[in-house]
């Protein structure tokens, strides 16, 4: 049992996956597409990853505005979630992704990755932060129940 974390953007989807014990998130890849509305290959690749990693839950970053309002990206992300659930048959949970891209950029800066190369990794690292936050919260809530 693993959980897949996704950072859905206009032309990319950052992908991360949990370890089997649901303790840590690892970046997997960035799925790129040429056109924002062309999602067939993106969804097919996610289906392949779901099968490869034996995923039974998906966490999708929800891009709310800093003042907690919902903009155009939230609507597109909601539509993407609906497509994912139909294609995979797996429940998709939203996770607040505010500041994950900023945190990913800061982590790469601290790691010494040059500015011109950060775009090659930022979505995958953001997906990792989204999934790790979800895993940490899930573990915390289970600890409260015990």
Give a quick precis of the structure.
The protein has 146 residues and is an alpha/beta fold. The chain has a single domain, classed as YqgF/RNase H-like domain (Nucleotidyltransferase, domain 5, 2-Layer Sandwich). It has helices at residues 40-52, 72-88, 100-110, 115-118, 122-145; strands at 2-8, 12-18, 25-32, 55-62, 92-96.
Provide the CATH topology: Nucleotidyltransferase, domain 5
The number of distinct helices, counting runs of at least 4 residues, comes to 5
- Integer tally of domains: 1
Order of helices and strands: EEEHEHEHHH
Q: Find the count of extended strands (DSSP E, 2+ residues).
A: 5
Distance between the termini: 21 Å
The gross shape turns out to be: globular
Low-confidence stretches: none
Mean pLDDT: 87
Strand fraction equals 15-25%
Query: What is the rounded Rg?
Result: 15 Å
Helix content: 40-55%
CATH class: Alpha Beta
Major sheet characteristics: 5 strands, mixed
């Amino acid at each position: 049992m693993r959980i897949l974390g996704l950072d859905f953007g206009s032309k990319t989807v950052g992908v991360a996956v949990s370890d089997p014990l649901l303790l840590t998130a690892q970046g997997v890849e960035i799925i790129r597409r040429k056109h924002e509305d062309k999602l067939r290959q993106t969804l097919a690749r996610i289906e392949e990853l779901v099968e490869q990693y034996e995923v039974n839950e998906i966490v999708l970053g929800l891009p709310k505005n800093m003042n907690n309002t919902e903009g155009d990206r939230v609507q597109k992300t909601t539509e993407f979630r609906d497509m994912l659930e139909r294609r995979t048959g797996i429940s998709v949970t939203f996770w607040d992704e505010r500041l994950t891209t900023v945190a990913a950029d800061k982590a790469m800066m601290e790691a010494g990755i040059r500015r011109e190369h950060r775009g090659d990794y930022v979505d995958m690292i953001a997906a990792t932060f989204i999934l790790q936050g979800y895993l940490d919260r899930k573990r915390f809530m289970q600890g409260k129940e015990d």
